[in-house]
Amino acid sequence: MTTAKLKTGIETGRSNEEQRGPGRRLHGAIAHKLGTEILSGKYAPGDILSGEVAFAEELQVSRSAYREAIQVLAAKGLVASRPKAGTRVLPRERWNLLDPDVLGWAFAGEPDVEFVRSLFELRAVVEPAAARFAAQRRDKADLKVMKDALAAMRRHTLTTEAGRAADRDFHNAILQATRNPALIVLSASIGAAVNWTTQFKQRARALPRNPIPDHVKVYDAIAEGDADAAAEAMNVLVDLALEDTRSSMIVSD
Fold first, then answer.
1. How far apart are CA 100 and CA 210, in angstroms?
2. Residue 211's closest CA among 178, 183, 245, 185?
């Protein structure tokens, strides 16, 4: 893979490095390549990655760009580097699987079925409770953000990046409305999980159904201040999203 291809790879992966300068985009692209290979199982826990000299020569990139990419992976718990021992892939339990970039790398290939299930279990635990708190604590500004996000979802649909960004905004607004810092800190991870699973569902075919009405039910309950209805509507939304994803995985198989 050439430097140009690496740069293309980061744009496709939509890493957090994407909007930064050329140097950062390059080492972000290298991190994306290696991260995707680790998450896909090409490199297993305990494996030693190629040394920086060999890797830099193979891909025609600088050794400093490779080292910076390894630092990115290390910060996310995927690898550890030691002098003379090289860079080793860490056990999976050390990986920061909720990091938005790591989630993106997992879905760049064919994600593990159990991993997808675990993401939906996380959403099923967090989001109904968040919707309940949001119904009790939201203000007019929160409702406006949610309503605007719904309008953008309708306008762009979830087949577009703009529509999926609006979907992320909707779920983020609910977490923000909880007024709970411990829940709010999960917004980037929840948003990334929503985004990547929605994209994944469209790989083999169009979305099996329109999920926007389910989001409207959540919004309506939050707007009415009905905590029980908000929690139940969100629970249904997550359950239906899981069913859609399961059916997409069956089609892909």
1. 25
2. 245
- For residue 231, which of 218, 241, 243 has the smallest C-alpha distance? 218
Segment 128-180, tens digit of pLDDT: 999 999 999 999 999 999 999 999 999 999 989 999 999 999 999 999 999 99
Token readout for 33 is: 């390549």
Closest C-alpha to 197, from 243, 236, 232: 243
- CA-CA distance, 119 to 140, in Å (whole number)? 30
pLDDT of 95 over the 90 cut: yes
Looking up tokens 């400093």 gives: 64
Per-residue DSSP letter, 89: E
What is the C-alpha separation between 75 and 91, in angstroms, rounded? 14
Structure tokens at 152: 């953008």
What distance in Å separates the CA atoms of residue 237 and residue 127, rounded to the nearest whole number? Answer: 10
Cα dihedral across residues 42, 45, 48, 52: positive or negative:
positive
d(CA 240, CA 68): 40
Q: What is the pLDDT of residues 56-86, one digit of tens each?
A: 888 788 888 989 999 999 999 999 998 878 8
Identity at 175, one-letter amino acid code: L
Burial class (CB in 10 A: 0-12, 13-18, 19+), 88: middle
The pair of structure tokens assigned to 114 is 């159990």
Residue 221: how many other CB atoms lie within 10 Å: 22
Lookup: tokens for 75:
């910060």
Amino acid at 201: K
| Angstrom distance (rounded) from CA 122 to CA 91 | 21
